[in-house]
Each structure stands twice: as C-alpha cells, then as structure tokens.
Design a protein that fits this description.
21% of the residues lie in helices and 41% in strands. By secondary structure, the protein is of the alpha+beta class. It has two domains: 4-219, PmbA/TldD fold; 222-457, no CATH class. Strands 1, 2, 3, 4, 5, 6, 7 and 8 form an eight-stranded mixed sheet that branches. A hairpin with a 2-residue loop joins strand 18 (383-395) and strand 19 (398-404). The longest helix has 16 residues, at 117-132. It starts with a helix and ends with a strand.
Length: 461
C-alpha cells in the first residue's frame, strides 16, 4: 500500500487549488462464494479488489475521483485534476498525520478463507438433497455461501489516519413449492461478522425443513383479504418496514436537502409512545457493524427515537455542513468507486413490555405477518408498499389459517403512530441496502409489534 509520505503528497495535491477538506479512502477487499441449484454448483467465484478514492470538499461542494491503479505519480496527477475542478479559492491548513489506529468489529475464531469451498458445498448439497426429497411439492432448491474480507484506510487533511478490517459470512437457503401455476418460497439468509465456526454451528437441516414447511403452507393457502385491519408483524426481518419507511428518511442524504418527511421534526413526536429505535453500529460480530465509518469517524450507538420522540438523525460530513449538526459516524459506501454518504448499520425498534403471546391474544381479528418480503418507499412522503412472504389470519386472539398474496400499504409517519403494542422478543436479521453510495451490509430488526390499523392489499378467492 501507499507510504505516509505518498499519502501526504496526494493530500497536498488535492488541496493545491483551495479546499477545506481532502480525504483519501484506500480499500483492499477479497471475497469467495458459491451458489447451488438443486444440489449442483452453478457458480463459484474468488475476487480481490484494490483501489483508492479521493474526495475534495469546499463547503457543500465536492469532487470525487477514484482509481484501481495505486501508482503514486498517477494518483498525484489525478488529485491535481480534481482540485482544478473544485477551484474553491481558499485553502485550509493541512494537519499532521496522526499515528495509524487499527480496529476490527469482526469476531473470528476460524478464518473463513482457510476453509476449502468444497467443505461448504458438501453441506449445502446435503441440505438440498434433503429438501428435494422432503415433499413432491418442493420442486426447486437453491443454496449459497459467501465470505468477504475488507481492509480500509481513511486519511484526511485533518490528520485522521484510521484502518479497519471486517470479515463477513452469509448463507442463503431457499425452497420453492409448486402447485399448478402457483409458486411459493421459503427462505432463510443469515449473515454475520463471525468466522467459519458460524457454519459449523448452523442447524442446516432444521432451517431447510422450515423453508420447505413455509413454502408448502403458503402454496396451499387461500388468498389474504383486503382492507384496513390490525396487523401483527413478527420479529427479525419484519424490521425492514422501519428500515425503509423511517430509517432512510432519517438519513442526512434526504433530511439535509429537505426531501424527508422528517425534516425539521427533531424533538417532536413522530411515533407512538411505545416505540423506541436505535442505529447501533458497535455490536461486535453483527452483520452491519463497524467501529470506524468510511470518513474515518468513530461509529455510534445512536438513539433515533425515544418513546416516540425523534432524538437524532444519521449525519455524515456533507450532511453536517448542510444541517449545521455534528457527524454521527454513519458514513458508508459499497467500495472505493463510491463517494460516502449517510447510511444505516444495525437499525431496529427496541424491546417493549409485551410478550408475543399477549400481542396475538389482544388481537381479535387481523393478520399476522411472520415473514416480510421486498418493497419500495418514497422518503419524501413516507409512502411504502411491502409484500408479505408468510402470513396467517388472526381470529379471536389466536393464529389461524395461512394466507398468501398479502401486501402492506401505508405511510411511515402514520404507521409509526399506529404501533400500539411492542414485544420483548427483539431479533436482528441480515440484509443488503442499496442507495446512492452503493449496496452495503445492513441489519434490520424489531420485536413482534402490532399496528392497530394498516391497509392490507389482497383478494378474496
């Protein structure tokens, strides 16, 4: 990698035409993965990516350039070209580079890169064979495994000099049931920042059975009804609604330019008093964790909502300048080809005081959403639309028959106010979030919650 002298020369070149901040992001990342379909390997990959990104800022104006060639003279030339494009006219003082500080939020016992792919392929094959013989309705089974290691170094003209290494593992198992023209899916996709010991401990057959049972129940189910009704949303990935309909609207990316439905709402009630929520990037070994963000700041355990009151936004460097607020260590990017921006990490609704059983028993009639699917949201209005992968009717305070085809439709601000019960069974689930700085690992989560009234899209048979 680049020496400190070379890095200082690049910073000098970046600031040569006037700027108040120059930032260098250096990345060395490797990944391995394998995908199976019906027990046969359809893809295997090993990759390594090395590159550098240079950002120059003056007020709320910035220029970002990047390269996968770390030859120093070329980088100095690139930095000078970027400086000419900014042309701010005033130059801030360049601070001396601090001593390099290293960190890692990963919790590794067995390095995943030390284990041959063949070992994982055999495990996934066994799970696939089990599923294909489980029931004639199971017609397709998919499995996947990926592991990645990334070391980043962030250096800037303020003297910041930070390095962090993150290693992650993710599994995917999916069973598809077919009945006539109807197909339904059961899926699990855990992710972690642990080592290969996670694979050794994972209950593959039990989880594959769950996938098969879910797919079979759903393919045999009738259609969900339509209309406004109480909805109970299960823990774990149910938190994707909060992530999409509320979390993105709390990022400075939208708040800072006034395109969020929560702009100007700090200190105001935006949710029911039973709702508290956090974005905690500092959970050791969790999928979306990091200790140093992609601007070189310490990450945080950030209280977003407390008893319904909006307490904080997710603020990056550019957002800080636009909003006149301190950064919160939430700046992230997919890789060196993206400029960083405010993003979520491990974002969840916190535990409440009710048990899941109490929530179901308190609901006379409605729908229980056990597994959420994909959806979309408009951060300016908070309007969202989410599919439900696994749902059941609630009748007389008990979970009844399965139903398929349910969709939850609403506005984030309204739904947050309609949450009237929050469980004590908080669970976190791995995901991938896409936004202006690329696709990044994020965790969503929540305990079981009840929304007193929400529009359900479905149809009667």
């Amino acid at each position: 990698m680049l020496s400190d002298d070379r890095i200082n020369a690049i910073i000098e070149a970046s600031m040569s035409k006037g700027a108040d901040l120059a930032e260098i992001y250096i990345q060395d990342a490797g990944s391995r993965g394998v995908s199976l379909l019906n027990g046969k390997v359809i893809r295997a990959s090993t990759n390594r990516t090395v590159g550098i990104g240079i950002r120059i800022m003056s007020g709320v104006n910035s220029v970002y350039v990047y390269s996968n060639n770390l030859e120093p003279e070329g980088l100095i030339h690139m930095a000078k070209e970027a400086a000419c494009a900014l042309q701010s006219g005033s130059k801030a003082e360049i601070a001396a580079l601090r001593e390099l500080c290293k960190s890692s939020p990963s919790k590794i016992e067995i390095d995943p890169f030390s284990v041959p792919k063949h070992d994982t392929v055999e495990i996934l094959k066994k799970a696939s064979d089990y599923a294909l013989s489980y029931d004639p309705l199971i017609t397709q089974v998919a499995g996947g495994y990926s592991t990645g290691s990334r070391t980043i170094r962030v250096v800037n003209s303020r003297g910041v000099n930070r390095e962090e290494t993150k290693k992650r593992i993710r599994l995917t198992m999916e069973a598809i049931a077919t009945k006539g023209n109807e197909k339904q899916t059961g899926r699990v996709s855990p992710g972690t920042m642990r080592g290969y010991e996670f694979i050794n401990e994972y209950p593959f057959m039990d989880k594959m059975k769950e996938c098969c049972d879910t797919a079979i129940r759903m393919v045999n189910a009738g259609y969900a009804p339509s209309g406004k009704m109480p909805v109970v949303i299960g823990n774990g990935f149910g938190g994707v609604i909060f992530h999409e309909a509320c979390g993105h609207a709390l990022e400075a990316t939208s708040v800072g330019i006034g395109s969020s439905c929560f702009t100007g709402k700090l200190g105001q009630q935006i949710a029911s008093s039973v709702v508290s929520a956090r974005d905690n990037a500092r959970i050791e070994g969790e999928w979306g964790s990091y200790y140093v963000d992609d601007e070189g700041n310490d990450s945080s355990d950030l209280l977003l909502i407390e008893n319904g009151i909006l307490k904080n936004y997710l603020v990056d460097e550019l957002g800080s300048r636009r909003m006149n607020m301190p950064v919160t260590g939430c700046s992230r990017r997919e890789d060196y080809t993206f400029a960083p921006t405010s993003r979520m990490s491990n974002t969840y609704i916190d535990n409440g005081s009710s048990t899941p059983e109490e929530i179901i028993a308190a609901t006379d009639n409605g729908i229980y959403c056990a597994q959420m699917g994909g959806g979309s949201v408009d951060t300016a209005t908070g309007e969202f639309n989410f599919a439900v992968n696994e749902a059941y009717m609630i009748r007389n305070g008990k979970i009844a028959e399965p139903v398929r085809g349910a969709t939850l439709i609403g506005k984030g601000p309204e739904i947050l106010m309609n949450i009237d019960m929050v469980g004590n069974d908080l669970k976190l689930s791995a995901g991938v979030c896409g936004a202006s700085s690329g696709n990044i690992p994020t965790t969503v989560g929540q305990p079981t919650i009840r929304v007193s009234s929400i529009l359900v899209g479905g149809r009667e048979e």
